[in-house]
Each structure stands twice: as C-alpha cells, then as structure tokens.
Amino acid sequence: MAPLISIRTSNGKLEIVNQLLLPHTTEFIEIDSVEDAHDAIKTMKIRGAPAIASLAALSLSQHIKRGLAVSLSDSPEWLQSQEALKKHIDGILAFLYTARPTAVNLGAATRRLQKTLDSGIAAGKGPHVIAEELVAEANAVADEDVGRNMEMAKWAGEWLWKRVQGYTSAPSSVNVLTVCNTGSLATSGYGTALGMITYLHETGKLQKAYYTQTAPYHQGSRLTALELQTLQIPSVMICDTMVGSLFQHHDIHAVVVGADRIAKNGDTANKIGTYNAAVLAARHKVPFIVVAPISTVDLDIENGTQIPIEQRPALEACLVRGVPYPNNGQADQVQIMITPAGLEGIYNPSFDVTPAELITAIVTEKGVAVKAEGASTFDLSAIVKLLPNQSHINDEYCGSSLTITTIAASQFMSSNSVAYLAVHGGAGLHGTSHEKEIKKALRRACIAGLGSIIQSRDDAQRPSPSPNIRMDSNEPVQTSPPATTSTKANWTRTRSGARANDERDGGNAGSSNSSTDARGVAAGDGNGYLHGVTMVEHAIVVLENDEHLNAGYGSNLTFDGVVECDASIMSARDDNYGSVGAVSGAREFAEANSIVTVPPEQLIASEAYTQWKKWKKRLETPEKGLSDIPNDPESENMRDIQDTVGAVSLHPADGFAAGVSR
Predict the structure, then answer these.
(1) Active site (annotated) includes residue 574
(2) Are 547 and 639 in contact (CB under 8 A)?
(3) Which of 209, 252, 483, 650 lies 20 to 30 angstroms, CA to CA, from 590?
(4) Residue 153 vs residues 195, 290, 365, 477: alpha-carbon distances, Å
(5) Predicted pLDDT of residue 415
(6) Cα separation, 262 vs 379, whole angstroms
(7) Where is this region: Disordered (predicted)?
(8) Three-class secondary structure of residue 473 per DSSP
(9) Tell me: domain 146-383, CATH 3.40.50.10470, correct?
(10) Catalytically annotated residue among 214, 354, 644, 654
(11) Who's near 614: CB < 8 A, 6+ residues apart?
(12) Domain 7-143, what fold?
C-alpha cells in the first residue's frame, strides 16, 4: 500500500490533506494563499514541524509565481523594485512564522528564504531575478525533506540495531515505542521517528511498534494508527498513561520521538507527553532516541528553558472528534465535549521539553550524536556546522563542465585537525542539462561523508552492515561474497550483484543500487574505526542514490562482454582493498589465497545485459553509432548511459581512503 501524503501539488494547485478529519475522512483542501497556509498551520489542519515548514515555503512560492506570471507592464507593485520586494516578502515571512513559533523548522525555512532575498539584493539583482530565486529556494525546502528523512531513518535504525546486538541476549527483532505522529503526514514523506520504525520494518528488524494515543489531539490514535495500518506494520496502541505499565510487562528496546525544536545542549521540545515517556524510559533503562532534521537544532537557544511553548486553546482539551459508534451508517464526524460545561482551570500546552540528560542519542541526516563520556548534555554546534550553505564546501570544475567535482574540508574535530573529502560525479552527457542538480547532489555527498565522522569517538555509533539486502521486489535476498583482494575482508554486500529475472539462467533477484558494496574490506579487520573509509562510503551512497547521476544500477560490460568492476573501496591506513565486480588480476589473487569467488555473470543485472546487447548492436551498425544520440536527459537512450561516481578522503588518523561506483 502506498504511504500517505500531507501535501500535494499539481497543475499549479497546492493542496493538503485535512488532518483534523483523519482517519475517517480523507479530504484534500486547496491552499490558495499565504493566508490559507497560515490558517491551516494554526488550526492544525496540517501539523508536524517539517510539513508546516514545507507548506509555508510552498505557499510563498505559489504567491510569487503568480506575480511573475503576469506581463512586466502589469507586474504587481511589489515586483517593481528591490525595496518593494523586500518589504512585501519580509511581511509574508514574518506572518507565516507566527502560525506556530515553537516549531523551529518553520523559523529555519523563513530565515533561509530571508537569506536568499537579502543575498539577491546585496548582489544588485533585479526584483524579478530575486523572485525567481525565492521560488527555487522555497521549492527546495519541501523537495529536500524526503531524502533527509530516509537518511535519518537509516542512521537511527542501524544505530539501535547495532546497540541491541551487543546485548548479552541479542534479540532477533526489536520493539519500539513512539509518541505523537512523525510519519509521512508530519513531513514531506517517509517521516522522522516513524521513518526509523518504517526502516526497521522494511529491513526485517522490527517486531512491533507501540504508539501512544497522544491526547488531547490524538495524533497517535488518529494519524500514527492510520499510517502504520496503511504500511501494514505490526503495531499496538496504548493510552498515554500506560507507558510505565508497558515497560514493566513488555520488552521495549527503545523509545523514538521526533522534535519541534532542539536546543544547543540537546534539550528537546516535542509533543506533550514526550517528557513523561523519557522519564519512564530512564527509570527502565530503555534508550531514548530523538530523530529530527538538522534544521530543528537551534543554536541560538542554549537550553530548553528558552524554548517558547505554545499554549493551545483550553477548549481543545475538552473535546474529542470522531464518528458515532455504533455508526448505523452515519459517516459524518461529530465533536463531543467530555468535560462539564463551563469548566475553568485548564492547562493545555502543546509541547513539553525533555532534558538532554534523559536522551540517549539525537539523530539527524548527518549522523548520530551521543553525549561525551560522563556528560549530561550534548554539544550540537559541530553538527550544525555541516549545513549545506557553509563556506567549507566549494565547487571545483575539473577540465570540463560535464565533469563536476566538489571538495569539502571540515575542522570540527576536537583535535582541531582537518579532514578533507572530495567527491566526483561523472555527469557525462547528463551534465549540461542537470548541472544544478548534480552540484546539489555533490554537496549532499560531502555533507554526508563529513557528518559520518562526527560520532567517531565510538564505533558503536557507526551504522552496521545489514546481513541481507532489499531488492526492487522488496524481498530480502541473501548474497554470497564476491571476489576481493583482501584476506581481511570477511564480508561484502553485493546489492548490485544480484540479478533481476536474468533470461540466461532464470535468476529471480531484482537489481538495486550498488551502495558501497565493498565496505567490508576495512570494517572487519579488528583495527578499529576507519574514519576515512566511512567518509567515502557515506558520500558514495548519496551519489549512487541520486537520479541525476545514474550511477550504481547494475554492472557494466565492455564491448566484448567482459564484466567491469562495479564498486570498490580502499584504505591507505592498512592497504586493505575490496571490490564488487571484476578487476584484472583479482581472480588469480583470490585463488592463490583461497578466497571464495563467484562467477562474473552473477554480478550482472538483466537490465545491464539487455543494454549491452542493444548498444553493441548499435555500435556495430555503420550508419549509426553515438553521433545520433539525443542530448535529452529524459530520453530512454540517455538513461541507459551509466555514470561513475567516487570519493577520496584524507583523515589525520587514517590517511587516504578512496572508493568508486559505476
């Protein structure tokens, strides 16, 4: 079943699902102005910090695009000059921010757009040019959310899994409790804390998800219940007052929550009831994990006492909404008062603050942050330094605009040493038409790579490799280790090595991204945490997963049908090297050292084999060749052309590490 969505756009129309009517009625309402967006956020027709930030940004984008759509002679007054544009946009951003001030994502989005506006004015750009840049930036606020959520979910899921595998009696699957709703309905897709639960379910590591009703708005019983039911994830609802009993009578391996604002020291504001769950989790020694995008961290706030807490109308705590039961065919929802009429003295904050001392880990798209040994709080300033707009990431163009390399340097490590990371996207024929998107992908790769070593203090914070993989069919497939040139490589995952319905011998595994398939060459050698390899690995994963680079799908064949290496990685610290695919001389080395190998044809996806036959025939036809390929990135022919991506890191403790995937 497809996941639910909170926002949709089509044919210039912006719509949201009215979450006040869920789960019994799915009704999309049109957002036709910034005033509509403000009202929807304020009245909680849409909620969830990332989702409301996305809606605010998209409503501004819609407003500006309407102004740009008219002829220059009829342009609205606010597009006539820089001064008029600034006054107009400043007012809109300030207005949108007042809708829900506790959610820092909304403030982060408005500040990001404010910076775009001010930068354009400072650069002397015309009002129409600045307006177009604001539209692009506003759309990016929403577009970037899904990718971030998936990165966070994997970080959090793998961190928890590795932690529980270290227990004396390691579970075969985990039970996780969550609060409120943090899935697709609270974000632009996949979710934060609920995204972690989804990831655990997708990878076969989840036994059951528990969730609180989350009164008085019942986001848990209305929204989380609907999302888990839609995704067919095994789950159990509990009342907010049952958390302690749950810990007493069931094995709960973690509590995972989202966040509306996180202070510099890690104090976290989230939906009311989160603090209660954290206190009980600490009493029962259950890890408490916060999963939220980096934009949720507010370095201007030292601790949670400075976080403004929204007070909701008292009446909301006195009402419940739903369909009559028994229904008797009546579909309309009704609102019922459950308190005595005229009740006074109602305390109804929308959020509470969980102190950092009760939080085990804070997970963002950059990695997992834990407290220093003996510390009761976090220092999140280092993580925020890895935001995409920081000056330590620079684009360099090497040789041709079709080949783009991004270089990043980070000086956040406690030793004040510098770590460097260079990533490369072999954009090929896609470069000219997708240069902007490719640059963004390269920046994200640098951020992911550098972010991966923030938690280098403890190897337990590193996502552990999964023993199985997920193919296009979404079925877990066990794979055999391919040839490698390192005797210390005791495992290697081959996501790209599996074949999809291969016509040659009836294989039935689907093909998927190659990921950093050879990462095991440096992970299992007992020499400790390899920061450089980790940087390379995380960077390459981002590049492989970007549609504009078209890398990491299947393997390549030479003109003669010989398998080429699909992914490789190496570390200069101990000269370990491994690959998935075929490298000249690798087989002889493997045989000499009694290393298990697999036939090269097992590394080829059927799609790659089909492409090879097609292009071989084309190149052998005299009147054709490469000259008549249309330079259109959406062309079927263009999507056949696979690119190469790679990364090189320099870490003061490990020296150089490098990896490549194609």
Answers:
(1) no
(2) no
(3) 650
(4) 5, 11, 8, 21
(5) 38
(6) 11
(7) 454-520
(8) coil
(9) yes
(10) 644
(11) 640
(12) Four Helix Bundle (Hemerythrin (Met), subunit A) (1.20.120)
Which tokens sit at 167?
């227990």
Residue 263 sits at φ, ψ, to 5 deg, of -75, 170
In angstroms, the CA 390 to CA 642 distance is: 31
659 secondary structure, DSSP code = E
The tokens of 538 are what? 């995380």
Dihedral sign of CA atoms 226, 228, 232, 234 in order: negative
* Amino acid letter, residue 295: S
Among the listed residues 260, 267, 298, 352, the single catalytic one is 260
Range 220-224 average pLDDT: 95
* Residue recorded with tokens 């929403």: 142
Which pairs from 114-119 meet CB under 8 Å and 24+ separation? 114/89, 114/90, 115/389, 117/85, 117/86, 117/89, 117/90, 118/86
Q: DSSP character for 623? A: T
Q: Which residues contact 618 (CB under 8 A, 6 or more apart)?
A: 624, 625
Q: Could you give the angle at which helices 49-69 and 82-97 cross, rounded to 10 degrees?
A: 150
Alpha carbons 127 and 133: distance in angstroms, whole number = 10
User: What phi and psi, each to the nearest 5 degrees, are found at residue 419?
Assistant: -110, 140
How far apart CA 467 and CA 464 sit, in angstroms, is: 9
Secondary structure class of 315 (helix, strand, coil):
helix
Burial class (CB in 10 A: 0-12, 13-18, 19+), 616: middle
Tokens representing 86 are 């600034």
Q: Measured between alpha carbons, how far is residue 268 from residues 186, 194, 264, 283, 300 in Å?
A: 17, 17, 9, 19, 14
Model pLDDT for residues 512-544, shown as the tens digit of each residue:
333 333 333 223 233 344 678 888 888 888 887
pTM above 0.90, yes or no: no
Q: In the prediction, which pLDDT does 621 show?
A: 67
487 with 185: CB under 8 angstroms? no
Straight-line distance from the first to the last Cα atom of the chain, in angstroms, rounded to the nearest whole number: 32
Query: What phi and psi values does residue 577 have, to the nearest 5 degrees?
Result: -150, 140
* Annotated catalytic residue 644: yes
As to burial, measured by CB atoms within 10 angstroms (0-12 exposed, 13-18 middle, 19+ buried), residue 649 is: buried
Cβ distance 499 to 605 under 8 Å?
A: yes
Question: What is the Cα–Cα distance from 406 to 421, expressed in whole angstroms?
Answer: 8
Range list for CATH 1.20.120.420 in the chain: 7-143
Residues in the chain: 662
Q: Which helix (H) or strand (E) holds 381?
A: helix 381-384
Q: What is the predicted pLDDT for the residue at 488?
A: 23
* CA distances (Å), origin 131, targets 14, 31, 34, 575, 588: 19, 20, 16, 52, 61
Most distant CA atoms of the chain, gap in Å: 88
The torsion angles phi and psi of 44, rounded to 5 degrees, stand at 65, 30
Quote the CA–CA distance of 265 and 307 in Å, as a whole number.
12
| CATH 3.40.50.10470 domain span(s) along the chain | 146-383
